[in-house]
């Protein structure tokens, strides 16, 4: 298939419109709050894009977990699976990856090369397992996944708390964190001199793969069809929706699980209680800004990575609280929704 | 002379380019049952909805009980005493019968929002008075369709009702229930209420109506006393001409295999006869909501033939189609179906196309498993778009191209696309439910000729594939007579074969009315 | 004697923890009965906590409660404008409102009080003691010596039950949540009904938040709602959309949470994070069991008017 430029640019235009609307509302809110929007935005931009190293070490590093969780949410939503549980799946993945990695403290050098892929697999499997519970409850018992995935988030958080205080706590026993993972389990650096790690590349590759799958394979077509309408899929497509739903849950969970372990293996080196500042929830905004298109999740995640990287600079240089950035993320979701409805209304008027 | 219950003059209504009502005049006397007849799309339901204030009219006037009532104002229609019982009930399924009645009637509640004392007794008394057997404490979704309808009628009649509009009330009822309903209606007219009975079953209308009005293409063509007419005259008025002689009697035919009559005609010889059976049903029974929808239906479909299923809607056609499409498992009986079945469903909005998918993506529902549209593991969108473009052209679908979202197409074009897609589906059986309903003449012709060519040896669009067998289900007798190699009529869940030598609209009509054929 | 003291303090803690959950869940019950699932109730809770804190600082704790209710309503209003009037997806909109509320309350708090790390001290809502009843052994102090919000819950449960199942407006509200088309055919204003139901839910969510800041802790901290709004949504399911069941489910969660304090007080060395996870695991189990098949309002979370394909 030739790339449909017209069709591809329309959502990009919509996303841009939503971004502009968000910035306008955010600027107004900043002004009401007694801050200078210009000062705040310029601090944010400097913080996120000020230098090549800032961009790589902060913006792209912050974008990495958002990229993976954003993919997780985009694929699930596209298939009609309301997975609000990326946060919990992320923790499950991080825990599994760490558990594998710290079990082999001696792994190093060429003989330890197997450890990283095994840990990655473990993380993906754990994330998928965490998503399998809501998947089973939805497909077998008809229990809505919104509530179950939310509940599973809390279970994962408390489980992580328990493990880093107990069985997985560092040998010193001082802090509630795990031991440092062995060097063989760490993700290699992508750019010498920066903090950017191979996890970002992994995310980009997976985004490309997911895009190919969703747009160019029969399986991806079935997933989108089920997401658009289960009844249409079964009546027009003559295939069962349930296996497709299962697959969407598992793939989504695996991607979110990878996000958790990638953060540990690429950035923190250890697992601790507050590993994620809510990436699993921000991922909803990322996926939505990307219009649920896996390829577009990459730039969308970078936008959010920049917001998050610039947020710190904004607080330091312009005195605007960092929490403000999270509010702006929500504004962005609402703006995307509003632009969407506006276009639909316009189309109805025309039709 | 008494004030008429309703009096409409020169009522005009368009939907887009389609004229639904064209200067219609309609009088409803107090205490009469007035049957409103017409084919699908003749405007009878629209006229009822105008009276109920649910549809606005562009021209004309309306008086209810002698007072002028504005068009398009449901509240005004209701307060002047018009109640409508819809074909699709507007009940809250989980509410009990009483809750549904109370929800609809302001009288049920005190000003402070609590229940009015004694209202329940009033409802019970009214139900007794009307002879409506209704369980007030059961949730409506656990009721039979007939009982739900009685709740709906009771709900409508708790207030003061001058005009009661019933939209195809018998379509969902079993014969015994129809009798019960008519008994209620006869009681009701004695109290002076005027009743409009929208229907297309002639015998039923004649059984209960005092007068009958026939609409055709938005125009009133006949109003007459029920005693002064006959089913045949009404049918002629509905279709606009006398039933034609058996113009197609020499058309190729064959027997229906093991059909309910069990007849088998060994003398039939044709190419069709010799070819392979692609689908067969044996003694298939389906019931839903305590109502038998299919009763012992047997049918064989052979490659390259069109089997026409005629009949008044609601006699089991939808269930038959769903069984043939593999979407409904029968309660009993044997079903042999090919792997892939093309299906143009009746419910096209819910089951047909996905609005936000492009036309090519909608066509891909039929092609995503087709090896010709794959390259290795990849879907070959270029091929799919190519096939879609050819389809748009062939079916005369007005669209910008394969990448246009389906939601932007008009209803008729969506339908042509849907029909075309199902022709494309490389199956051995195609089930088409009213494939030309809602289409204009030209589009209908396109769909019909495509059906005919698909059944013939023509393999356009299906290179190298033998033709499928086609089951054409349609209430449109002309369509059936034009296209079908063999005809059977659905009557109350049974499939009655039309003897080939009696191939005519009149003969089909007699079977539909239950007065001819081998009978159920 | 020691046991009864432990028991009494356990019950007091359980009731105190159950009240904000019950308030938010009762509000959500009304909203869901009208067919709207508002996971933005979490946002109402955190907004209510901050609104309560600001109100209390300005004019005392009762104004604080009013401020909390107002702030909760405001968050719900944003949700209603999008999800009801613009007909956007209820779940995504709710997630956005929750996320935004958590962010903006944090930002406002930091702007106003700085990120100094010194805990804000708020004047709390005084406890009322019911004569006689509060002297019932063990349960008395827990149930009848509490702040206004506790008694509000006692009042709301029967009142909401009466409203939902015995009045015209309750019937209309449930009709809107079950079959909006039928409700509209009966002449009911679907969108207005849904908006009011969502706002009422936000009001109670805000009160739940105000309870957190003005009764439970006497301070405000960022993210102090800590998912209570999300838990409330599970409680509504467990309580089967009935105020009485919702109260029971809220008490269950309160007890489970209070258990950890009681066990700590008794020097039982149990991994408390696992205890904290217990109510969530039990909720999942309950949903998987017979609760899951309980009847959600039929039109819950569905767009209305229906959107084309």
Briefly summarize what is shown.
With 351 residues, chain A is an all-alpha fold. Helices cover 75% and strands 0% of the residues of chain A. Chain C is built from twelve helices and two strands, in the order ααααβαβααααααα.
- Alpha-carbon distance between the two ends of chain A: 29 Å
- The average pLDDT of chain A is 91
Shape of chain C: globular
Query: Largest inter-chain interface?
Result: A-C, 54 and 53 residues
Q: With helices defined by DSSP (H or I, 4 residues minimum), what is the helix count of chain C?
A: 12
How much of the sequence of chain A is in beta strands?
under 5%
Helical content band of chain C: over 70%
Let me know the number of strands of chain C: 2
- Mean pLDDT score of chain C, rounded? 90
Structural commentary:
The complex is a heterotrimer of chains A (351), B (520) and C (309). Helices cover 75% and strands 0% of the residues of chain A. Chain A has 351 residues and is mainly α. In chain A, helix 12 packs across helix 13. Chain B folds into three domains: 234 residues, 3-Layer(aba) Sandwich (Rossmann fold), CATH 3.40.50.300; 192 residues, P-loop containing nucleotide triphosphate hydrolases (Rossmann fold); 71 residues, no CATH class. In chain B, 31% of the residues lie in helices and 24% in strands. A six-stranded mixed sheet of chain B has the order 6-7-8-3-9-10, sandwiched between helices. In chain B, strand 11 and strand 12 form a beta hairpin. The longest helix of chain B is centred in the middle third of the chain and has 16 residues. Chain B starts with 5 loop residues before the first strand and ends in an 8-residue tail after the last helix. The C terminus of chain B is likely disordered. Chain C has a domain of 188 residues. In chain C, strands 1-2 form a two-stranded antiparallel ribbon. In chain C, helix 1 packs across helix 6, helix 3 packs antiparallel against helix 4 and helix 7 crosses helix 9. Classes of the chains: A mainly alpha (351), B alpha/beta (520), C mainly alpha (309). The interface between A and B is medium-sized, with 24 and 33 residues.
